[in-house]
Design a protein that fits this description.
Layout: E1 3-4, H1 5-12, H2 16-25, E2 35-36, H3 38-47, H4 64-70, E3 75-77, E4 81-86, H5 92-103, E5 118-123, E6 126-131, H6 136-144, E7 152-158, H7 165-177, E8 181-186, H8 195-203, E9 217-220, H9 229-243, E10 246-248, E11 254-263, E12 267-276, E13 279-280, E14 284-287, E15 290-298, E16 304-305, E17 307-308, E18 313-319, E19 328-332, H10 335-370, E20 374-382, H11 385-396, E21 403-412, H12 417-426, E22 429-433, H13 439-448, E23 452-455, H14 458-473
Parallel strand pairs: 4-6, 4-7, 7-8, 8-9, 20-21, 20-22, 22-23
Antiparallel strand pairs: 1-2, 3-10, 5-6, 11-12, 11-19, 12-18, 13-17, 14-15, 14-19, 15-16, 15-18
The chain binds guanosine-5'-diphosphate.
Organism: Youngiibacter fragilis 232.1
Family: Belongs to the TRAFAC class translation factor GTPase superfamily. Classic translation factor GTPase family. IF-2 subfamily.
Protein name: Translation initiation factor IF-2
Length: 477
């Protein structure tokens, strides 16, 4: 499962220094002869706009999975999984809200204020599952982790604005992932709306609407005035029909983590999207290096449920730790097996982290010697993935020509010893957002004089880092 950086560069057909740069950008300091694992390689490849595939499933017993796939005898129709993409302000969020409101009955509406990262609606007896994080960041992040869960993309284009840079990006992402697009031409209630102009612009990207003899479905809608929502959903179902989406619901469950967080009272919470099989309360699962036995399960309306089949998102309780969004989960025989496999993965992760730390010292030293750019490396730990993304975005935006702010590592959960050793090696500041260092980490941080800062408000964190940057620019006296 490991490959040296040099071999990896050869495989990609890219210069080694470019690959090393991509690795650094994804938070891994690696030398030319260092071995990296698939996940690390995939991340770096994504930075180079290449997507890579594993030649065979990783060890640890999950390979049975593929053999099982051949035995997926009882394939039955499953609901499509849909992501909404498009340029900022074109109405992605409004559309997701309009769909949710239009299709959820009064009696269910109570719990639905709480988003779990995905929701399922029913139209004419057919289900559709929507991923609740609009935009292509989540889509790309998932793909970078090797998880492609979207079957269909609804591309929102505002009729008064037309195709904009992020629309184009979204189209490219869909093409790269080979995911069909249904175009929602939004804001048709506005006086400046020009549906034909949008269709014209779309043709420049190879998306020729049906009325014009192409095969791209375009549906005029208004998320605000609630026009065309049902038409749009019918077209999504039609597209799904053509894709003949199927899954076996009679096997051990597998799927992907959509969202995760640490709930103060209930412990680690994760939204899982089941992709194959059926997940039941009491099942044992392995998720990355986390495991657990499902104590309770809730649907997207916060209703307690006992089982969930393919394409259904559920929030689960009972994991040992907060899993990473984008990670796959696998149902395994029992909790003991799950724990053993999780431990094995943890050990592997730890040894990799140590070897990358060792290399980083040398690499950083040479970087400092040759480079003029100053860097402010940061490690972020937080209670939920969403805060990490928000904080990372705001901090990295502080970068100037003179100082680059770089988040070299991030994760959900308390600040641990490994975070501190990474910070020591990379001279990084550790930021905890709604989380604190555990006892060992606090002791190590004091010994190694690592700067650990904890915050509850993003603005305060940003303000402090900005101040630190000004400090870095001051001449030493
Ligand atoms: P996002 O950034 O793509 O998620 O866009 P939002 O859903 O936040 O919408 C951006 C703005 O456009 C908001 O002020 C919405 O109220 C407005 N908006 C969204 N859909 C419509 C629509 O169909 N008609 C009109 N007139 N305004 C809309």
């Amino acid at each position: 499962d490991f490959i040296t950086v040099k071999d990896f560069a050869d495989k990609l057909g890219k210069p080694v220094n470019e690959v090393i740069k991509a690795l650094i950008f994804s938070g891994v300091m690696a030398g030319i002869n260092q071995e990296i694992d698939f996940e690390t390689a995939a991340k770096a490849a994504a930075k180079l706009s290449v997507s890579i595939k594993k030649s065979k499933e990783e060890s640890l017993g999950i390979e049975e999975d593929e053999a099982e796939d051949l035995e997926d005898m009882n394939l039955v129709k499953r609901p499509p999984i849909v992501t909404v993409m498009g340029h900022v302000d074109h109405g992605k969020t409004s559309l997701l809200d309009a769909i949710r409101k239009a299709k959820v009955t009064e009696s269910e509406a109570g719990g639905i204020t709480q988003h779990i990262g995905a929701y399922t609606i029913t139209l004419n007896g057919e289900k559709i599952t929507f991923l609740d994080t609009p935009g292509h960041e989540a889509f790309t992040a998932m793909r970078a982790r090797g998880a492609q869960i979207t079957d269909i993309v609804i591309l929102v284009v505002a009729a008064d604005d037309g195709i904009m840079p992020q629309t184009e990006e979204a189209i490219n992402h869909c093409k790269a992932a080979n995911v069909p697009i249904v175009v929602a031409i939004n804001k048709i209630d506005k006086p400046g709306a020009n549906i034909e102009k949008v269709k014209q612009e779309l043709t420049e990207y190879g998306l020729v609407s049906e009325e014009w003899g192409g095969d791209t479905i375009c549906v005029p809608v208004s998320a605000k005035a609630k026009i065309g929502i049902d038409d749009l959903l019918e077209m999504v179902l039609l597209t799904a029909e053509m894709k003949e989406l199927k899954a076996d619901s009679n096997r051990r469950a597998t799927g992907t983590v959509i969202e995760s967080k640490l709930d103060k009272g209930r412990g680690p919470l994760a939204t899982l999207l089941v992709q194959k099989g059926t997940l039941n309360v009491g099942d044992s699962i392995l998720v990355g290096s986390t495991y657990g036995r499902i104590r309770a399960m809730f649907d997207d309306k916060q209703k307690k449920i006992k089982s969930a089949g393919p394409s259904i998102p559920v929030e689960v309780l009972g994991l040992s730790d907060v899993p990473v969004a984008g990670d796959k989960f696998h149902e395994v025989k029992d909790e003991k097996t799950a724990r053993g496999m999780a431990e094995a993965r943890k050990i592997k992760e730890r040894s990799q982290l140590q070897s990358s730390v060792r290399v980083s010292l040398e690499d950083l030293y040479s970087q400092v010697k040759e480079g003029k750019i100053q860097e402010l490396p940061i490690i972020i730990k937080a209670d939920v993935q969403g805060s990490i993304e928000a904080l990372k975005g705001s901090l990295e935006k502080l970068s100037t020509d003179e100082i680059k702010v770089r988040v070299i590592h991030n994760g959900v959960g308390a600040i641990t010893e490994t975070d501190i050793s990474l910070a020591t090696a990379s001279n990084a500041i550790v930021i905890g957002f709604n989380v604190r260092p555990d006892n060992n980490a606090a002791a190590l941080a004091e010994k190694e004089k690592v700067d650990v800062k904890t915050y509850r408000i993003i603005y305060n964190a940003v303000d402090d880092i900005r101040a630190a940057m000004i400090g870095m620019l001051m001449p030493d006296i």
